[in-house]
Design goal:
With about 200 residues, this protein is an alpha/beta fold. Helix content is about 40%, strand content about 20%. The protein contains six helices and six strands. The chain has a six-stranded mixed sheet with strand order 2-3-1-4-5-6.
């Protein structure tokens, strides 16, 4: 099956929706893949529960997505809040060689028990890095986008860069590209660690 299922969960204001839109933009507009995105907010846009899903068909001959909601098990799961982390189970992720990745923010989630039973769980202090290096939480999106681009390999790095240029204010492009590079580096370190564990 060529469907690639992505789910992003957290709170409003963490960039959940923006990250999903960046993924679909790079996949469809620059990667020429059929893709769709759905989203939902809780009672309040900022601070309330929030999730977004992206479904991408990796078969370039497919022109549309027949069912837009991401289905378990997911190929990729991004978790940004403690509350969302409580609901994650290992069976929510695929166990294929190149999928089944879980990214979580160690600066917003203190306890995430399921990660002990998930092989491809990568914890990064996204919010902490964004604030300490760039002085704004919003740069966390580009860090996460760098991680996703490198681990998923769905679209090219150039597609990701063009997407960032389209999504961020022109005066912050260089900082966002730097944040993207930081995310890439974190993902590359994680890939190296997985290879060492298999060796």
């Amino acid at each position: 099956m060529s469907r690639y299922e992505v789910r992003i969960v957290g709170y409003g204001g963490q960039g959940v929706i923006t990250l999903s839109k960046m993924i679909i933009n790079a996949s469809s507009l620059y990667g020429n893949l059929a893709a769709t995105q759905t989203e939902a907010y809780g009672s309040s846009a900022r601070g309330g529960k929030c999730w977004a899903e992206v479904v991408i068909d990796l078969d370039k001959s497919v022109k549309s997505i027949d069912y837009p909601k991401a289905m378990q098990p997911y190929d990729f799961l991004v978790v940004l809040s403690e509350e969302a982390a409580k609901n994650v189970k290992p069976e929510h992720l695929k166990k294929d060689e190149n999928t089944g990745y879980l990214i979580w923010d160690t600066s917003t989630i203190k306890t995430f028990r399921a990660t002990k039973r998930i092989d491809k769980a990568i914890g990064i202090p996204i919010q902490k890095i964004a604030v300490e290096i760039f002085n704004k939480m919003v740069f966390g999106n580009s860090i996460l986008f760098g991680v996703f681009t490198t681990l998923s390999r769905i679209f090219s790095e150039q597609s990701a860069i063009e997407t960032i240029k389209k999504f961020v204010p022109s005066e912050t492009i260089n900082q966002n590209l730097e944040a993207f590079e930081l995310g890439k580096q974190e993902a590359e370190k994680f890939i190296s660690k997985l290879k060492e564990e298999k060796a």
